[in-house]
Design brief:
The protein is an alpha/beta fold. Helix content is 41%, strand content 24%. The protein contains eleven helices and 15 strands. The protein binds 4-hydroxy-3-methoxybenzoate. Residues 41, 44, 102-104, 125-128, 172-173, 225-226, 253 line the site of 4-hydroxy-3-methoxybenzoate.
């Protein structure tokens, strides 16, 4: 009698233990955040991870009764690694969302995994137009290079810049920037006298900048990925291009807020077009910037951080709508979201799954001894021009 009672108690405890465990698993929602945390693009990983953690700290880690768990993986910026990590996260960790993707090749390598496993994939950084077409499970909260490039192509010819050399990183986003800048600039009566492409890995800008100098344009239009702008700016001044009266214009990646302050006075007056500046003057952004800097030892959030922060918002809101369900239902709940981001008004186009937002024209100015991208003009609600093909 005693023994039977004991056994029953043990069995019951085991059962409770097991169901307790499965309850915990059912109640977890895992987000696999794959980022370059080391290597040349580590600043992008650092910014996005910090922003995702800030979002969770501000909004709690329970959504629709589920405990949100962030699993951060370092892909070092290598596409094979990103793909393998995504596979492991889906199969072993059973993540409900894949997120991050610091560079275009990393997002493209992983797209088939999202499609096969029906896992929503939130692109928080990569910005080549075609990425969203690589899988119907991709949603983007970063931006696209065609969106960013047409703004400056409209501004430049109205401001004395008629003859331009383009200088871009030789891969997806650079080629998008080159094409969409050029098409719009020619349409506006400008002239592109030379188009130069620099290798993505270990770029040496010096010989390319010498070519720019020899061509004597009014300006060089540039796209380089986040993190590379300081090296380009340094070479630009060392080669004396500024003294030769050649202006530098580009998408805002080159005057990335993460490194802008380290560029020195050569960056002053540089005009770029982009969707986000740390200096964006709204209460929502000031609150975001203050909280981010406080939590990260005074690091400024850049456009990568805002892509990560808004990506988390899209995931949280979708989870609320599906009451915690994942897969295709979650994907559908991400489509069409509209909200106020630190960047300004933001919309996820349900048809293209891509971001629609304002593009701002900004000039680097010094205020209180620091350099900022100060916005002075706004192009409202810009859809990706790359989708209008
Ligand atoms: C990409 C586009 C990467 C813009 C970037 O920085 C950037 C990309 C790392 O699509 O690879 O600023």
């Amino acid at each position: 009698m005693q023994k039977r009672f004991f056994l029953r108690t043990v069995a019951l405890a085991a059962l409770c233990g097991a169901s307790g465990l499965s309850l915990a698993q059912d109640n977890a929602f895992k987000i696999g955040l794959i980022l370059p945390m080391t290597g040349p693009f580590a600043s992008t990983g650092k910014q996005i991870e910090a922003a995702a953690r800030l979002y969770m700290a501000q909004n709690g880690n329970t959504v629709a009764g589920k405990k949100v768990e962030l699993i951060v993986k370092d892909d070092t910026g290598t596409p094979d690694v990103t793909k393998r990590l995504a596979q492991e996260l889906v199969v072993n960790d059973k993540v409900g969302v894949l997120a991050g993707f610091g560079l275009t090749p990393l997002a493209l390598a992983t797209a088939p995994i999202a499609t096969q496993s029906k896992t929503p994939l939130v692109v928080m950084a990569a910005a080549t137009s075609s990425i969203t077409e690589a899988s119907p499970f991709i949603i983007r909260t970063s931006f696209t290079l065609p969106q960013a490039a047409v703004g400056i192509a409209d501004w430049a010819p109205k401001n004395g810049i008629k003859k331009v050399v383009t200088l871009v990183s030789d891969y997806g986003p650079g080629i998008d920037a080159e094409k969409f800048f050029k098409d719009r600039f020619l349409f506006n009566g400008g002239q592109v006298v030379e188009s130069l492409r620099v290798p993505l890995r270990n770029p040496d800008f010096a010989p390319f900048l010498q070519k720019v100098r020899d061509a004597k344009p009014d300006a060089v239009f540039t796209f380089v990925p986040s993190g590379a702008g300081a090296a380009l700016m340094k070479q630009f001044s060392e080669r004396g291009l500024d003294k030769a009266g050649i202006k530098l214009i580009g998408t805002g990646d080159v005057t990335d807020d993460d490194i802008l302050n380290s560029m020195g006075d050569v960056a002053m007056g540089v005009v770029t077009s982009h969707h986000y500046s740390t200096a964006h003057n709204t209460p929502t952004n000031r609150k975001f910037v203050d909280a981010f800097m406080k939590a990260n030892n005074n690091l400024r959030p850049n456009f990568m951080a805002v892509g990560g922060y808004d990506g988390m918002h899209v995931i949280y809101e979708a989870l609320k709508k599906t009451r915690g369900a994942g897969g295709e239902a979650l994907l559908n709940a991400m489509k069409g979201q509209i909200f106020e981001s630190p960047r300004g008004p933001m919309f996820i186009d349900a048809q293209t799954r891509d971001v629609v937002h304002n593009i701002y024209i900004r000039r680097v100015e010094k205020k209180d001894g620091q350099l900022w991208n100060v916005e002075f003009d706004t192009i409202k609600d810009v859809k990706d021009p790359g989708k209008a093909r």
